Amino acid sequence: MKAVVAHAFGAIEALRLQDWPDPVPGPGEVVVDVVAAGVNFPDLLVTGGRYQILPTPPFIPGKEASGIVSAVGEGVHTCAVGDRVLVLVESGAYCERLLAPQANCFVLPRGMDFLVAAGFALVFQTAYFALVERANLQPGEVVFVTGAAGGVGLGCVQLAKALGARVLAGVSTAEKGAVARAAGADAIVDLSGADLRNSIRDDVHALTGGKGADVVLEVVGGDVFDGAFRSLAWRGRLVVLGFAGGRIPNIPANRILLRNVAVIGLHWSDYREWHPEWMRRAQAELFALYEKGLLRTELAGAYPLDEAARAMAELRDRRVKGKVVLTTDLWRQRESEASST
Ligand SMILES: NC(=O)c1ccc[n+]([C@@H]2O[C@H](COP(=O)([O-])OP(=O)(O)OC[C@H]3O[C@@H](n4cnc5c(N)ncnc54)[C@H](OP(=O)(O)O)[C@@H]3O)[C@@H](O)[C@H]2O)c1
């Protein structure tokens, strides 16, 4: 098969599409013929050698894909050959044939297409565990999402709305604000100002009658984090999701006490290892919300596998509004068959 390979940690421009051995499923494992793979910010961190869990080079990046089951090992019961599935892995999704434990394969709802599926799992799963498990969101609460036009951000906006919250979306441009609004955000907070530490708090307070946000979902770090922390309501919860902007912030512990707030971490992929059944229940709930029309993947672009570096650069350079996916030859083959019938 073909796969996108990193021979060392470093620049995404060094990634190469090359031959790679076909996987063979062992007991409890599944091989999926990949149609599309999701591109996520952590893929940039892994490729650059800056992520918390790193594969040994040479390796294939990528944490999620959609496709068709082509082989199963002994004892597999979550899916069967021919099933349309999405798959979650720690690393390795930018390829034509993906090996995964059966617990990480989820049969797609009828009508969910492969491009949508390739960008559906990681962002909505992250949003789910942030809002439901970590923040214990209650209907009617105010949720403030930073980086709200990115992959995880849009997932958080949609899921928070679906769970009955009022949603404030933090973005850096008017264009990104329009995307967040289209995904259901009730109001926009500008993250492009010069004095974010004060302006974010002031804007969130102005939008909430001085009360602040009950839940903050924070993906940017740096000054955005500092302002978002100050925007919390009494008994508010801030979930630390990521540091896309680079600077990892510090919080003096006295401020957590004095403001009566909680700062909670989420490392979502841990649940895949520690609580795979919980993750399966979450995915079933997310599929049900999709079927009700309450969640959708905002597709921002589809690139062939050999343009993986170009797709990742879109994310790195903050040009993406929504999700970018990679497509394989199998996707092109299916498209041409569909158009000729
Ligand atoms: N904790 C977890 O389990 C978990 C799971 C998945 C992802 N994550 C993390 O969540 C974050 C978002 O991931 P994603 O896939 O949604 O990424 P994404 O699609 O690239 O979105 C990131 C957003 O952050 C904002 N941003 C601000 N400064 C940035 C910078 N210097 N570079 C890039 N973006 C910047 C951008 O919005 P503006 O341009 O509007 O500011 C962008 O829309 C990442 O830090 C990722 O590592 C965490």
Layout of secondary structure:
Layout: E1 2-5, E2 16-19, E3 29-39, H1 41-47, E4 64-72, E5 84-88, E6 97-101, E7 105-107, H2 114-118, H3 121-134, E8 142-145, H4 151-162, E9 166-171, H5 174-182, E10 187-190, H6 196-207, E11 213-218, H7 222-230, E12 232-240, H8 253-258, E13 262-265, H9 269-274, H10 276-291, E14 299-304, H11 308-316, E15 323-327, H12 329-340
Parallel strand pairs: 8-9, 8-11, 9-10, 11-12, 12-13, 14-15
Antiparallel strand pairs: 1-2, 3-4, 3-6, 3-15, 4-5, 5-7
Structure in a nutshell:
This protein has 341 residues and is of the alpha/beta class. It has helices spanning 41-47, 114-118, 121-134, 151-162, 174-182, 196-207, 222-230, 253-258, 269-274, 276-291, 308-316, 329-340; strands spanning 2-5, 16-19, 29-39, 64-72, 84-88, 97-101, 105-107, 142-145, 166-171, 187-190, 213-218, 232-240, 262-265, 299-304, 323-327.
CATH class of the largest domain: Alpha Beta
What is the straight-line distance between the termini? 28 Å
Bound molecules: NADP nicotinamide-adenine-dinucleotide phosphate
Give me the count of strands. Answer: 15
Computed Rg: 20 Å
CATH topology of the largest domain: Quinone Oxidoreductase, Chain A, domain 1
- Relevant CATH superfamily of the largest domain: Medium-chain alcohol dehydrogenases, catalytic domain
